[in-house]
Amino acid sequence: MLQVSTPSFNRTSYQEYSSPAPISLTTSISLSFHPTSSNGLILYIGDVSTTRDFLSLSLVSGRIQLRYDLGSGVAIIASSSVIPLNQWTSVTVNRVRKDGILVVDGVSTNGSSPGFAGLLNPVGNLYIGGGAGGVGGYQVSPNAGSHVGLTGCVDTATLRVNSFGLGAVISSRGVIQCQVDPCSHSPCQNGGSCVSSDLTYSCVCPLGYSGDQCQE
Ligand SMILES: [Ca+2]
Asked: Ligand 1: distance of its center to the CA of 188 in Å?
């Protein structure tokens, strides 16, 4: 049983993490988020000072977009339907070289990036939210999809990148505690029960399971 808290973002706020796993050849991401506005950058991997390569997840007019540039052009893979605001939505991304699959609440969309490049490299840090630049902001690719940050919450405790959880926060700006009941999207796996208090939650795991979300 471990207490975890859920960050809330407001257009210019963000968290920066070191990239948690080797992701240049394949990148898989799973996350749950709770938007209160229909536009904003959710997640960004890249560093415009060293490479054009990036991978982003953003909300554009209510549709989720997965975008990446491996060095020879941008893939844009968009969810077909508009997602509801003020609800938790789960998203998974699977990229193998140029080919990507975006799954939003169980519905898949496929796409590919143009040209010959197949590696996401060099890999920059991972950011949640933000991306507006300006004083204290971080710079994103002009092709990143959204240039304002997400408004809403991201369950960073259950976020996985190539099966790894996020490490420690390197830097952060303007992040506050999410006001949504963190148990409302059932974060506990394998039959664990969720207990929320003071906007944090813990999972009580059945016998044989452990980990923050009873995932082990
Ligand atoms: Ca590349």
From this structure: 36
Q: How many CA atoms lie within 13 A of 158 on its CB side?
A: 26
Q: How far is residue 154's CA from residue 136's CA, in Å, rounded to a whole number?
A: 21
pLDDT digits (tens, 9 = 90+) for 77-123: 999 999 999 999 999 999 999 999 999 988 999 999 999 999 999 88
- C-alpha of residue 140 to centroid of ligand 1, in Å: 16
**Rg of the Cα trace of the chain?**
17
**Ligand 1 center to residue 121 CA distance, Å?**
4
What is the distance between the alpha carbons of residues 94 and 27, in angstroms, rounded to a whole number? 6
Nearest of 138, 215, 126 to residue 168 by alpha carbon: 126
